Amino acid sequence: MAERHFKYVILGGGVAAGYAAREFVKLGLKAGELAIISKEAVAPYERPALSKGYLFPQGAARLPGFHVCVGSGGERLLPEWYTEKGIELILGTEIVKADIASKSLITAANEIFKYDTLIIATGSTVIRLSDFGVEGANANNIFYLREIDDADKLVAAINAKKDGKAVIVGGGYIGLELGAALKINNLDVTMVYPEPWCMPRLFTAGIAAFYEGYYANKGIKIVKGTVAVGFDSDANGDVTAVRLKDGRVLEADIVVVGVGGRPLITLFKGQVEEEKGGIKTDGFFRTSIPDVYAVGDVATFPLKLYNEQRRVEHVDHARKSAEQVVKAIKSAEEGASIEEYDYLPYFYSRAFDLSWQFYGDNVGDTVLFGDNDPTSVKPKFGTYWIKDGKVVGVFLESGTPEENKLIANVAKLQPPVQDIEQLEKEGLAFASNI
Ligand code: FAD
């Protein structure tokens, strides 16, 4: 039984792990102190690329092009960087058991990794239709997208099924980005989702109307208000059709399912305190157990701005929580203190020529402004969310970097609004005047 010991272990080799490694080096790390253990076979990379540039028919993004920290304009950490800094990248290694009492992480082959300090950064996993017993959901060419291996399989299928038919199940981030990516690859795309409009967790009806119109103009068919209840396949086990609850049957050579994810915390069940489906932390990402921290998708942390414990499954928080946790660990070692995490939620997405950003909280009344006509040559529009007389969230499609900074500022400062009609008229000018 092989046993190794490290001062710091990061479990998971995704976005948060990479940004944490960079922060450790910045704040002072000795060779051999840090290990990153990851199920994936590659060094940390910017995961959002998998549903965007990775799927381009020409000039597709490939590693090493999008290793962290390029996604935030930082240095690209190639595998050699970890070696140079004396960081052990233990790749292709899945931890199947965590024993917090003995500070041990264990693989299926019974390798044991001991730590003094653990950072849990295991991210999320996709929800599978087979989890709900959807008939035929294990057919070939039904894809989910979380890791680079998933993306490689999808790319192979896109190449094998040229000009074929694709069905996207789910109308969230993955559904919208993948719908666009497959269309760009010249597949005949149909999207299916049960809600009255796409991305209902963030989009208002007005925002969604633009994207649905835009997608329809690109030739994407959208089927709403129903769900996939079964899949047909041929003698080879390849999917041939998606059966819908409303009785319709959609032919399919490729199916991509994006119906949500869940944080990967099973290894720690019963060993750390949980909240809202994640591992409960404080503003320094400390869990209920000393020397055990949790960051990124798995952490349910105090969102100071809203005075509430929240979990955020977005890349910006993965990066920032990773930096915060390393600062917290290092300062505690030196007996110093740092400020609590004070996060402004920030989400974004890109598809076709579109690009939106959202900052803040999407609660309260909404005001749509600008040109959200999907047939416009240069559509540009946004939405303000207003709660208790203050603007608390802002969405903007096709903003310039400067305009995106302005809306972030509004969400942070939460300026009061007296006159909603005036706000609608002013649109983006309101943000410029804050
Ligand atoms: P991850 O980056 O998921 O990393 C977790 C790592 O832990 C993985 O390497 C995994 O293999 C490893 N791991 C898990 N369990 C074990 C184990 N038991 N043993 C060993 N290793 C393990 N967010 C945005 O804000 N904008 C976007 O446009 C956007 N696009 C996205 C597109 C896709 C396709 C996906 C999947 C996500 C996207 N996200 C986006 C979300 C964003 O990527 C995540 O919020 C972010 O990656 C979370 O970082 P993390 O480090 O917590 O987890």
From TrEMBL:
Q: What is this protein called?
A: monodehydroascorbate reductase (NADH)
Keywords in alphabetical order, please. FAD, Flavoprotein, NAD, NADP, Oxidoreductase, Redox-active center
Q: Which GO terms describe its molecular function?
A: monodehydroascorbate reductase (NADH) activity
The UniProt catalytic activity note for this protein reads:
2 monodehydro-L-ascorbate radical + NADH + H(+) = 2 L-ascorbate + NAD(+)
The record, for InterPro entries, names: FAD-oxidoreductase/Apoptosis (IPR050446), FAD/NAD-bd_sf (IPR036188), FAD/NAD-binding_dom (IPR023753), FAD/NAD-linked_Rdtase_dimer_sf (IPR016156), MDHAR3-like_C (IPR048618)
Write down the EC number. Answer: 1.6.5.4
Record has Transmembrane helix as a keyword? no
One Pfam entry name: MDHAR3-like_C
Q: What is the lineage of its organism?
A: Eukaryota, Viridiplantae, Streptophyta, Embryophyta, Tracheophyta
Q: Which cofactor does it need?
A: FAD
- Could you state one GO cellular component term attached to this entry? cytoplasm
FAD/NAD(P)-binding domain location, by residue?
6-322
- Which residues are in the Monodehydroascorbate reductase 3-like C-terminal domain? 344-431
Naturally occurring in which organism (per UniProt): Canna indica
Main EC class of this protein?
oxidoreductase
Coiled coil start-end:
none
Q: Which domain of life is it from?
A: Eukaryota
Q: Which family does it belong to?
A: Belongs to the FAD-dependent oxidoreductase family.
